[in-house]
Amino acid sequence: VIGFFTHLISGITSFEEELWRGVYEKAKEKEYSLICFPGDNLRLDKEGNFLNPRNLIYRYATEETIEGLIVGSNSITSFVSPEELKNFCRRYGKIPLVSIGGNPLDIPQVIFDNKKGMKAIISHLIETHNRKKIAFITGPMGNQDAIERFEAYQEVLKLYGIPFDEKLVYQGTFLVDSGFQAVEFFIKNKIDFDAVVASNDQMAFGSMNALKKYSIEIGDEVSVVGFDDVTDAQFTNPPLSTVKQPFYIQAAKACEVLIDILEGRKVDTHYILTPELVIRESCGCFSSKIQEIDTNIKLEGNFSSRQEIESYFLEKLKNILLEKEIVREIIDKLFDEVLGGKEIFIKTITSIIRNLIDRGKEGSISNLRDFLFLLRKAFLSFLNNEKLAIAENLFQKTFYIISEALLKVAVNRDSKKEEASSLLRNVLSSLSASFDIKILLSNFENALKSLNIPGAYIFLKERDKLKFLYGSFENSHIIPEETIFDENILLPDELVPKKEFYLIAFPLVYQDEHIGNLFLHTGNEFPFIYESIYGQMCSSIKGALLFEKIQEVERELEDKNRRLEELVIPMLENIESISKILQQREKTLTELSEITKQSAEDLSNMSSIIEDISSHANKMMEVIKIIEDISETINLVALNASIESTHAGEYGKGFSIIAREIKKLSDSTRRNSEEIAQTLKTLSQSIKSSHEASEKTLKTFKEEEAIIYQLLESLRTIWEGVKNLSESSNKILKMLSKK
């Protein structure tokens, strides 16, 4: 089993798709299983931890899951330094590694001569178009390819004696927008330039858009060139001159080297692919293909035999993307017809084209065309004038046949792609509308069938474990759903197919959350199908999980409502009972308040009567005082009478008797008045005490009346509260009863 790390398998350019196809088709040809890990660009913190959640899929490439690993260093390293890439690759210990693109580790790597390619196209601008003020848009300066291309720019300027001007350098990101921003920066800052060299085609596209915005003629006023030769480069207006990177060959070669390592064959540490200039109109030239048809151009080589021509193409040219049998057959049939008179060459070309289409290798038809351009040069140099016209006629017919075939292939592929896109839109629509997890999985299974995807597995993350959610390939039925596995296991042994398999392992990521893993078996010819399904499933699974949580919360609420209802009904009964008691207590307190009020009034009246009695007693005391005074006077008179009677002698005896009686009366009156006074005093004291007690009792009654009033008001407030509580509880009960 081979592993492959890449950014994506389908993006805005053909770059990612060609890398994936190169590895996939070579692994399939060699009958090796493949697991592709499209984990996006590496983003690491200082400790080497993943900052991009999509990077998490890379950790599943272990000695237990793969035997060898291809690292797409030119795909995943836009935002990391060479040192960070080195540390990242060291994680994979004893696993044999091969790199597509430069890698700081001492491992086999299939690289493209960035410097040679960049030097060639800048030299073309200087030599052919006499450009001197050449602006340069770099890639991310942590990227090794970007660094090498920038160094090549500086070296070419030095070679041609053109001073380096840092004002003409703009740091880009390999994205279209940065190309647009670069040119706009030069224009707004009035920096004079007559050519733009972008470190990749995407930034060149952005540059051309900016030049058009400011009405600057591309090619005539300002030359624009790129790097990569992605599919869209030939369709821009004007078509983009660039440096072709054979990504498919690069990836296929990396896979081949890894297989050689696994099978014990000796390999080199570096495989360097030769750059190819693709001259179109954006630099100010005509297409290089048009130039190649010109019979006056200088022909390659000086050949004297069939063997020399065959040897040249089979051994010396490394960039021919055709099987050796096809190359040999074409050369043989060409010689047989031109020199032997057999009309067989055109039939052979037609047969080869049909065979390529039948085998699903339509992309090789353009390789066939490129090979025939080169073969024409070599073959025409071999012929004498007598046979030259015959050969030229054959080649022109061949180019016409190939052009027709390419057009048919393009139309057919576009038709298939549109059909697949239409089907995909329906599939994505059904997946996006699936909120129930079971319905989602059912729609997902239907999507796999309609899109010709052989099978899939889905695992969901649960804390530090993975839960098996879905499987639809070979032995997946033997694992019960929701079986729990260790988080660090890529696939349980039961799910690993027994024969060759080709898997794409996606990390299910929603925003910055890793929610699980998705594995898709390859089958559909369009990689964008897999990326689209993956993107939609990230959202749909997260949505279904949220919907499941909402349903769970609703069930909990229903259960709580039921239990609340069970509590509310007894509470209502208690409230009603309390309400009745409160009504009774209110009535009792009202009556008590009335009695207390009446008692207070009676006590107040009694107090007034006591005050009157006290007043009369005081008046009687005054009368007693008068009587006592009279008694004293009488007693004094009696004493004087007794004295006078003594002085009168015998004549005073009668008066003396009267005096004694008067004194007796006086004494008796005094004693009686004293007793009455004492009685009145005691009575007055009792009246006073009774009055004070009455006042205290009256005060107590008034305080009691106030307390009863407050208690009654509180009771009424409580009653109102209980009444409101009863009404609210009834409303709650009605709401709980609604379904």
User: Could you estimate the helical fraction of the residues in percent?
Assistant: 55-70%
| Domain count | 3
Assembly form of the protein: single chain
Radius of gyration: 56 Å
Percentage beta strand: 5-15%
Q: Summarize the biggest pleated sheet.
A: 11 strands, mixed
Give the terminus-to-terminus CA distance. 56 Å
> How many strand units?
17
| Secondary structure category | alpha/beta
Description of the molecule:
- By secondary structure, the protein is an alpha/beta fold.
- The chain folds into 3 domains: about 1-110 and about 440-445 and about 450-545, no CATH class; about 310-435, no CATH class; about 545-735, Methyl-accepting chemotaxis protein (Helix Hairpins, Orthogonal Bundle).
- The chain is built from 17 helices and 17 strands.
- The chain has helices spanning about 15-30, 75, 80-90, 115-130, 145-160, 175-190, 200-215, 245-260, 290-295, 305-315, 325-340, 345-360, 365-380, 385-430, 435-450, 525-650, 655-735, and strands at about 1-5, 35-40, 70, 95-100, 110, 135-140, 170, 195-200, 225, 240-245, 270-275, 275-280, 455-460, 465-470, 485, 500-510, 515-520.
- The strands form 3 sheets. It has an 11-stranded mixed β-sheet with strand order 11-5-4-3-1-2-16-17-13-14-15. A 4-stranded parallel β-sheet has the order 7-6-8-9, with helices on both faces.
- Strand 8, helix 7 and strand 9 form a beta-alpha-beta unit.
- Helix 4 runs parallel beside helix 5 and helix 14 packs parallel to helix 16.
- The chain is rod-shaped, with a radius of gyration of 56 Å.
- The model is unreliable at about 290-300 (pLDDT under 50).
